[in-house]
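Researcher: Here's the sequence for the chain we discussed earlier.
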Amino acid sequence: MGRGGGPGGRGGGRRDPRQAMEDMNYKFNPQVFGRIFTYMKGKYILMTLFVFFTIVANTYCRLRGTWFTGQLIDNYIAKKDLAGLPHAMIEIVIIHLAEILIQLSQQLVMNRLTQGITKDIRDDLFTKMQSLPIKYFDQHSTGNIMSRFTNDVDTVSRVIQSTLTQVFSTLLTLFSVLGSMLVISIPLTGMVFVFVILMGVFSTKIGGKSARYFFGRQIAVGNVNGYIEEHVTGQKVVKVFNYEERAKKEFDKENTELFRVSDKANLFSNILMPINGLLGNIQYIVLALLGAIMAIKGGSFNFTIAGRHVLQLGELITFLSLSRQFTMPLTQISMQVNTVVQSMAGAQRIFTIMDEKPEEDDGKITLVNVTKAEDGTLTECAERTEHWAWKIPNEDGTVELRELKGDIKLNNVYFGYDPEKTVLHDISIYAKPGQKIALVGATGAGKTTITNLINRFYDIQSGEILYDGINIKNIKKKDLRGSMSIVLQDTDLFTGTVMENIRYGKLDATDEECIEAAKIANAHGFIERLTDGYDTMLDSNGTNLSQGQRQLLTIARAAVADPPVMILDEATSSIDTRTEALVQSGMDRLMEGRTVFVIAHRLSTVQNSDAIMVIDQGKIIERGDHNTLIDQKGVYYQLYTGAFELE
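Model: Thanks. This is the structure I predict for it:
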């Protein structure tokens, strides 16, 4: 239903962080990290294997250094025999130097691996975004979507950089250290497990609460980003309507919620480290006490292997060091819990978009270039000929070529953005090739919705839309949209030169074709007066141009595409009266020989239309040409004479 009747807008789609946290138990999936690991395959497999190799080597070096302390005491100091000490010292120095080189190479490769995977995630996210239906963008704010590419991807990058390698390193350390501790003393190893269980209980309870709040934090960040994006782009409106104070209050509300969930998340995550650190210190004291008793008392408290006491002084010191190494990874993980849960929340938000259902396209009919013989025979060809045809595959394997003419019919169309709420009722429009069809009516009547259906931005609930006698559901969307050009009320330009923005309508257009299109739109004059002419750089949606100039460029962009069908949705609404007079002659030349749908509030721009449809509340209440409708003295007559205005 026009601009106001759609399912949402760019500012919509904010989600309550509190509700998100309540829903997390049902929707939050920690296994999303498994999908991150899939990025380490393929072209990154060698880097990944190298990183894992360095982790193994680094773990060995660290473990070897720990054993050296006990051997130093038991083999040299206790025996008062230093004969082999120099050799042992050289060996341990070499091991520590190797450890440094291993850590350095690991960091260098890991940095490259992280940046590569992050790039691939952004590429996949952007690629997925291109496949989503327009409905998705109507229901989610631009700022919220942007936060997936920035904040969420950054959190995933951090977890790849540190946490994922830390997990593998932790598991390797735990198993290797566990084996070493069991060799030294089974009773003391059992005592270590008692404290590990306590750490696990606290980490599970407190970490779960932290995860819920970090998930809510990601939602709140998206809401704040969305609000900022809205008010940066709409700053003129804010100032014109003196909305500054209200905007500050609303932003403070969003920002306060972000503060609240962030504070709670960090509170729970930061509690873990000191609790686990305290348990680790208590464990160290208990092990030192029991170990000392076992070393002094000997067989009364100890197991024996091969007739000797297992625990010696050097072994006790080694065991205490190993116990630190066993619990240290657990403590480190608790210290990184905020990174872990943020990344889990960020990864889920990213994969939520990637798991969105793409725009469906079950069409099989394509648009191809053809040559047309004198007898009307069409032949498909690879080169561009300015003649097109629909390539229709038949069930028997043959192919039919039907010339693209621009004949569009809407037969008894019903549609609603919400299937349970119909906004278009029994719409029938017949546009013959070369005809100009005007849609007029109040804002929200359903004019823009009709053109959105022709492009298959949305699919109808019932009825049919025919294009050259073909149901558009059977035409591939890319080919359907490629046969049309649209000039919208919103002037969306892209960072690049003026020439590049015009060429957006036809990527293989020559400079001469772009200039000719600018002349048709009467944009050539002002472009020539720009500092660098057609090479002038545009940024921030062309803010260095006036609104009218931006609109002229979008008209030129549509002109260079040279399509058989055009849709002009309030195309001249942002152009002043003088500029409109210049554009109208160019538009008339542009529309010549094409099927054109025009949506306009200025009825002076549609007087020469072949047919005018008056839309009201999703229904066509009047139809005919200008003179016919004037003679009827109905709604169109009242609109044209000013008896009442379009709203």
